[in-house]
C-alpha cells in the first residue's frame, strides 16, 4: 500500500469510495468530478489516496484553516474513507498519519475533525472530543 497525493487520473478509482461516503445522500457523478478537480487545484488542501495494486482503497481530504487562537493555522480532516472490505487493516490509520504529517509540514498547530462514527479509532490516535458539530444548508 502507498499513500500519496491524488492525481486527476485517480478520479475514476476514487469515485466508488466517494459514492459510498455516509452523507445521507448519494453525490452525483458530475458534482463529484467537479469537486475532485477543484480540490486538487486548491493550494490549502490535500486529497491523499491509499493505493494498492491498481486500485484506490481509501482517501483522506484535509485542508488548512486560519485560526485566531492557535498561534498558527489548524488542519481539518473533512473526509476519511476506506473501502469497506479493507477496514481494520491499517489503511485509515496510515491515511490519518499522512494527513497529520501534511498538517505539520504546513505549520498547523492541531488537527480537527467532526464525526459521529469510529470514535474509538480517533481516540486511539490521540483525538479528544471537544465540541458538538452543527451544519446548515445555504
Automatic annotation (TrEMBL):
Highest taxon listed in the record's lineage: Bacteria
Keywords: Acyltransferase, Transferase
TM segment ranges: none
Family matches, as InterPro entries: Acyl_CoA_acyltransferase, Bact_Acetyltransf, GNAT_dom
Keyword Transferase: yes
Residue stretches making up the N-acetyltransferase domain: 1-138
A GO term for molecular function: acyltransferase activity, transferring groups other than amino-acyl groups
Protein's name according to its UniProt entry: GNAT superfamily N-acetyltransferase
Source organism: Demequina lutea
Amino acid at each position: 500500500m502507498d499513500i500519496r497525493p491524488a492525481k486527476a487520473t485517480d478520479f475514476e478509482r476514487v469515485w466508488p469510495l466517494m459514492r459510498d461516503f455516509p452523507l445521507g445522500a448519494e453525490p452525483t457523478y458530475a458534482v463529484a468530478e467537479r469537486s475532485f478537480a477543484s480540490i486538487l487545484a486548491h493550494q490549502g488542501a490535500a486529497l491523499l489516496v491509499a493505493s494498492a495494486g491498481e486500485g484506490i482503497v481509501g482517501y483522506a481530504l484535509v485542508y488548512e484553516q486560519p485560526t485566531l487562537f492557535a498561534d498558527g493555522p489548524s488542519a481539518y480532516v473533512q473526509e476519511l474513507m476506506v473501502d469497506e472490505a479493507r477496514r481494520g487493516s491499517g489503511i485509515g490509520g496510515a491515511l490519518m498519519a499522512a494527513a497529520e504529517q501534511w498538517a505539520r509540514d504546513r505549520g498547523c498547530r492541531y488537527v480537527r475533525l467532526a464525526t459521529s462514527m469510529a470514535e474509538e479509532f480517533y481516540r486511539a490516535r490521540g483525538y479528544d472530543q471537544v465540541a458538538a458539530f452543527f451544519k446548515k444548508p445555504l
